[in-house]
Amino acid sequence: MLESIAAVHCLLNPKSIAVVGASGDFSRFTGRTLKYLLKHGYAGKIYPVNPKYKELAGLPCYPGISELPEAIDIAFIQIPSAAVVEAIKECIGRGVRTAIIHTAGLGESGEKGKERQKEIKRLAEESGMRICGPNSAGIVNVIGKVALTPVVALELDELTPGKIGLVSQSGGMTGAFLTRAEGRKIGFSSIISTGNEMDLEASDYIEFFLEEPQTKVIAVFLEGFRNIPRFLQVADLALEKGKPIVVLKIGRTEVGAKAAASHTGALTGSDEVYNAVFKQKGITRVYAQEDLIEVAALFSKSPPPKGRRIGIVTTTGGGAMHLADECAFWGMEFPSPSPETIAEASRGLPTFASLSNPLDVTMSGVGGGYRQSLDLFLKDENFDLVVAVVGTSSQFEPEMGVKPILERDKSFSRPFAAFLNPDAQVALRLLEENCVPTFKTPEGCARALRHFIDRGDFLEKVAIRKAVASLPLFIDREKVRILLSGKRGTLNEHEAKALLREYGVPTVREMIAQDVGQAVAMAGEIGYPVALKILSPQIRHKTEAGAVRLNLRSPEEVTAAYAEVRQNAKGYNSQAEIQGVLVQEMIREGIEVIVGISRDSQFGPVVLFGLGGIFVELFHDVALRLAPVNDAEARDMIEEIKGSRLLKGFRGKPAADVEAIVDVITRVSQLAVDLRDRVLELDINPLIVCEKGKGVRAVDALVVME
């Protein structure tokens, strides 16, 4: 069987192609495939296959695949679904290396279609032939002039070669992206429609682009990955190769179908997990079609900036201020130009020009003053990235309007982009053709720049992580095995904390009382104040059941609380097994956070961090990562939540022990990896975080076993 990279190379660089089901009517999709191969300059051998014709477009037409004069690289199959299985058998018999099945109505529709696709898959696996599709719109190798698709967007007279490899799980979207990009002269290296991914899948195509030198950025229109371990492997390879992956994933509103027992399980829907994985692997996620094109184009033209300090030079004050406002919203900074920059810029600009940031040269300074100001900003060490903003001149005098940008000093390595305030298509194309990343709206420009900055931040963190490895954790796994022997379903709170202690997670002191006398004696031994909680695996959320009493300061209060928690627990769930009452120490000061685990059906164990207590589900302010999570990733999780400000010392409060939280997250992550086949969900909620240097304590814990 062809390795996936070799198979994709064959698909994109074929020396010979058979178009099975070719038509003489070039207005129909069965005719357009042949038409576009010829129109866009394919230089290899083309073999139309259709028993209705002797000749098509001046080429001999063959009645069947078995009659082809040679073994070929690709068969493009566009015939009724009922005939595809037989066509694949003929391909195998004739030694065809790969096939693109354009035909729909197979695995995506009905039992008959599914059975046919299953048979095609079996035949391909046995023979070693590799398949793109079924239900694929085809491929376009723009650089190699292979337009093997009936997508009507190929009516374009010419295609702009570029550095972006596009992988789309939607056939119709390939044309949409191509026409949007071509209108701006943003070029692709190749475009692949993956179809049903019966054999070759999105990760295979991404891996090919990672190895292919002409592609600098991979853009992906995604519904979901078929093989998650394969995707994670390819994502790691992308980091190693230093090639960005930009993803537009649909299905944001999908939520997990299972009924979760824990807070963590309720907060880790499939899209949230995808988001977490993209962050963890350095994959840029966008949410708009224009963003996929613009962000990929930006990434393809220069390395990311070293920081978030933006310098803007403009001919239009309003357009620049709108852009600056959007950029500030996304956390970018606008330092003043250096005194040297201001002094030099003032010599070439009118007295009424605004010598600040944004620097407004006005229309009076469009000539040499604008270009000089751009050069000054590009060499100014106060800026990490410079944006040129142009007003109406870019629309009505496009060449003159963008001439200062094209003539800027290109010796500076600082990243550079342009935002054109009017709808200036000619100027946009002119800039893109000269390797200047361009933007049509201030909102899109600001989002793209934020992604660009985030990419730079991520790469810097990766470099630091490589230099500072996390220390391994030492766990007595035999003791853990004995502790969990025979355990199923929900552990009681005391058992859950015993498991956490084996992984080095600090917990509060507690004892189990079986009667009120024991409870009073244990409270005295632990020391007042204490908390009382019902101990029952069936009552997972004790606060809801009224089965918790806090800050008990005397034997009398303990006596009353003991009766109350037992009575309330029985009223909440009369069938619950009451295993006793926990008597716990009270932690007087600290911030409540949650650390948890859930098991995603695709990705496996996921670690969660957020502010704890009863508000975690209400505010949904959490960060997720796939296990294992190292120290640096744990710090990223803490920084990611909005509530992280509370941990740094908010309004006179002392800073919390963040390093102790990092330690707990990594230890829980190790538990998730070790027990991935046994633990379904875990919550430490709340984990009380004391002030810096004084550690943390797990106050409550829930563990749900397989």
How is this structure best described in words?
With 706 residues, the chain is of the alpha/beta class. The protein folds into 4 domains: 4-295, 3-Layer(aba) Sandwich (Rossmann fold); 303-464, 3-Layer(aba) Sandwich (Rossmann fold), CATH 3.40.50.261; 509-585, 2-Layer Sandwich (Dna Ligase, domain 1), CATH 3.30.1490; 591-705, D-amino Acid Aminotransferase, Chain A, domain 1, CATH 3.30.470. It has 25 helices and 29 strands. The strands form 6 sheets. A 7-stranded mixed sheet has the order 9-8-11-10-12-13-14, sandwiched between helices. Strands 24, 25, 26, 27, 28 and 29 form a 6-stranded antiparallel sheet that branches. The protein is flat, with a radius of gyration of 31 Å.
List the helices and strands and how they pair.
Blueprint: H1 4-12, E1 16-20, H2 29-39, E2 45-49, E3 55-56, E4 59-60, E5 74-77, H3 84-94, E6 98-101, H4 110-127, E7 130-132, E8 139-141, E9 146-148, E10 161-168, H5 171-182, E11 188-193, H6 202-211, E12 217-222, H7 228-241, E13 245-249, H8 263-267, H9 270-281, E14 284-286, H10 289-301, E15 310-314, H11 317-329, H12 339-347, E16 359-360, H13 368-379, E17 385-390, H14 393-396, H15 398-406, E18 416-420, H16 425-433, E19 438-439, H17 442-467, H18 477-484, H19 493-502, E20 510-513, H20 516-526, E21 530-534, E22 548-552, H21 555-572, E23 581-585, E24 591-600, E25 604-611, H22 616-619, E26 622-626, H23 631-640, H24 644-647, H25 658-674, E27 679-689, E28 696-698, E29 701-705
Parallel strand pairs: 1-2, 1-5, 5-6, 6-7, 10-11, 10-12, 12-13, 13-14, 15-16, 15-17, 17-18, 18-19
Antiparallel strand pairs: 3-4, 8-9, 8-11, 20-23, 21-22, 21-23, 24-25, 24-27, 25-26, 27-28, 27-29
Helix pairs in contact: 1-6, 3-4, 6-7, 10-17, 11-17, 15-16, 20-21, 23-25
